[in-house]
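User: I'm writing a tutorial on reading structure tokens. Could you give me a worked example: one chain, its sequence, then its tokens, then a sentence or two explaining what the tokens reveal?
Assistant: Sure. Here is the example chain.
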Amino acid sequence: MLKKIKHFDTSMELIVQNFHGGIKLNPPPPHHDGIRSLKNMLQLPVDVCVINRNGVALIMNERAIARSGFNSLNDCLDKTIFDVANHQTAHFIAYQHKITSHMNKIQMIEYDFIRRDDFKLRCILISYPLYDDFNKLVGILDLSITPDKYPLVESLSHLMEFGLLNKPSQHMDNIRFSKREFDCLNLLAEGKTAKVIGRKLKLSHRTVEHYLENCMNKMKVTTRYELIAKFLSYRA
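And here are its predicted structure tokens:
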């Protein structure tokens, strides 16, 4: 049971399962192929960090360890975001975790990650509520993408292939895209520029920008990175 594990043992080959808008880490059933194992999730091209309800790190992959400024996993264990980030960043992330726990739903935000030594990166943070075998909320799974270091679209595609994100739909809860808006957004999520989108859809550059601006307003975001991430990270 997750809440009784102080530090994860990746040799346990825990299986990543989707559950109520969040994630469960369970022992593998017999004859499982192991594709969606914790070990494989740690190999994804994103920063992976699992924390308990007190914000204490239980496991991090090499990308997350490096971004945090540590040399090894042992240096990270039992640390919180307040041991890593500056005061403003730490409080911001802690607040996002509270929202994730309270809403029991995946949250996505673009922000500046600033370490205590003032090292700075622009990040897309995707936080999942984490549940144990008894369906009790026991922590948070954080996936962080640094678009300046690894292409955002590729990172999100890997998350979709792993089953951590759903493929986008033209209808998302109360958000409705027109066909042209959805077409433009899909191509943007594939890494296409507004000019390329215009050529493909036989639209002017200004018209494409107008459709994307509409999408940003509907998704309540302020940047293209955030628009792509929120579009692809949406889960019904």
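What the tokens reveal: The two ends are 27 Å apart (CA to CA). DSSP finds nine helices and nine strands in the chain.
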